[in-house]
């Protein structure tokens, strides 16, 4: 292997690769992705098989510990998670201090970081493997509760406590949608669709939020702080925020009269900052394998739930027009996973400000697995270099002599 620091000392060169388009930041045994061929595998298992056959919690185990669990291992994993689903009552009060219109991603990121203050054992980078694992289980268990409560808070609705006899996905839906005064039944179609969506989002190698988690963790910051940083990175509309941006774009097109061609023209106009949200991907340049799976799931859900929504008609038209257009074809711009995930979330009754929170819920096992791999592999602190382009040197000028 090339010793980069020796090479730099000898040559004085620094590699400049803005956006890290061709720079590997780490070695990883978690997720394999081939953007040209449209292949995605977790720990060697094709995403198509996992989405079809596995449960989200099984996939979480696979990503974090490296292999699919046996029945005993899975039972033990689920029962350990179940012990930690409650959130400290003092933390519950934090929610109430946020304004009702607070974006749930802002609340979620802050709440996850706050967990470190309630569990100080997470702060010690040299703690035992058992304590490290407890930190992981706590986070996996509490994120659905925190996510659902961030939504309840935005509605000023009463918080629902976890029902531990429910599985991971059903419990989350219950905490999101149940009300103390109503008898809430979780629809199995919705549970299945959400299970699939969470699996598809569970890891995606060194994307913006995952790289953030690894780089923050490389300073030996605790797991909660590292994941909180990942949640913030995910929030942006060019990353996880794209699913919310898709629905907002469809609403805009609808309110403007539904002329899809006009908006496609706008997206192609280089003087117009508008981009078609949910189209294009940094790595997939032929198709996004997750989009293929999710498109089918979206069709199934819409049919089973008998949903008739003008926004979905616009989405279908947009997909068709863009796929046939030379601008999009020549740049390999296809609908990505977020184009369809926003559509499914909307059909499931999940409000658009919660879409990126749903993404975070799915991505959590991947972030944890990547943080664990980074810390166990003893990676050095992440510290990129730069190519300086500013003034070389200047003498200080008193304020009266400036200008
Ligand atoms: N609409 C219109 N034009 C686009 C779009 C789009 N959605 N995406 C890319 N282009 C154009 C660019 O203007 C550029 O054109 P040019 O070559 O004439 O200058 C060309 O396609 C290449 O685009 P880049 O921005 O260089 O591609 P990059 O790999 O840096 O960006 C990204 C990828 C950020 C995903 C981009 O396609 C985009 O902004 N898409 C919309 C937002 C989105 O859906 N994000 C979700 C990503 S998936 C995820 O996070 C799970």
UniProtKB/TrEMBL annotation:
GO terms for biological process: tricarboxylic acid cycle. It catalyses: oxaloacetate + acetyl-CoA + H2O = citrate + CoA + H(+). This is Citrate synthase. Keywords: Acyltransferase, Transferase, Tricarboxylic acid cycle. NCBIfam families: cit_synth_I, PRK05614.1. SUPFAM superfamilies: Citrate synthase. Belongs to the citrate synthase family. It comes from Fluviicola chungangensis. The active site is at residues 281, 338.
């Amino acid at each position: 292997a090339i010793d980069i620091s020796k090479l730099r000392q000898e040559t004085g060169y620094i590699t400049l690769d803005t956006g890290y388009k061709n720079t590997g930041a780490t070695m990883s045994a978690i997720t394999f992705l081939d953007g040209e061929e449209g292949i995605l595998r977790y720990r060697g298992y094709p995403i198509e098989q996992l989405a079809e056959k596995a449960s989200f919690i099984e996939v979480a185990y696979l990503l974090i510990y490296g292999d699919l669990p046996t029945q005993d291992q899975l039972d033990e994993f689920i029962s350990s998670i179940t012990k930690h689903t409650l959130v400290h009552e003092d933390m519950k009060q934090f929610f109430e201090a946020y304004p009702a219109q607070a974006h749930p991603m802002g609340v979620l990121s802050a709440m996850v970081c706050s967990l470190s203050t309630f569990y100080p054992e997470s702060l010690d980078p040299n703690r035992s493997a058992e304590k490290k694992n407890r930190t992981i289980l706590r986070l996996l268990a509490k994120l659905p509760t925190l996510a659902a409560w961030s939504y309840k808070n935005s509605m000023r609705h009463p918080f629902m406590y976890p029902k531990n006899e429910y599985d991971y996905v059903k419990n989350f839906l219950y905490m999101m949608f149940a009300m103390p005064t109503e008898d809430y039944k979780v629809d199995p179609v919705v549970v299945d669709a959400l299970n699939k969506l969470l699996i598809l989002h569970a890891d995606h190698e060194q994307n913006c939020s995952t790289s953030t988690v690894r780089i923050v963790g490389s300073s030996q910051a605790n797991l909660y702080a590292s994941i909180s940083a990942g949640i913030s990175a995910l929030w942006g509309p060019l990353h996880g925020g794209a699913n919310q941006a898709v629905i907002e774009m469809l609403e805009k097109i609808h309110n403007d009269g539904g002329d899809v061609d006009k908006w496609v023209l706008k997206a192609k106009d280089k003087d117009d900052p508008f981009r078609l949200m949910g189209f294009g991907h940094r790595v997939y340049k032929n198709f996004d394998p997750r989009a293929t799976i999710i498109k089918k799931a979206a069709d199934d859900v819409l049919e089973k739930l008998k949903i008739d929504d003008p926004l979905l008609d616009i989405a279908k038209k947009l997909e068709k027009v863009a796929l046939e257009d030379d601008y999009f074809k020549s740049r390999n711009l296809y609908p990505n996973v977020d184009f369809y995930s926003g559509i499914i979330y909307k059909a499931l009754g999940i409000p658009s400000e919660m879409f990126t929170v749903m993404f975070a819920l799915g991505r959590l096992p991947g972030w944890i697995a990547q943080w664990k791999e980074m810390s166990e592999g003893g990676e050095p602190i992440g510290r990129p270099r730069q190519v300086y382009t500013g003034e070389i040197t200047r003498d200080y000028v008193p304020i009266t002599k400036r200008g």
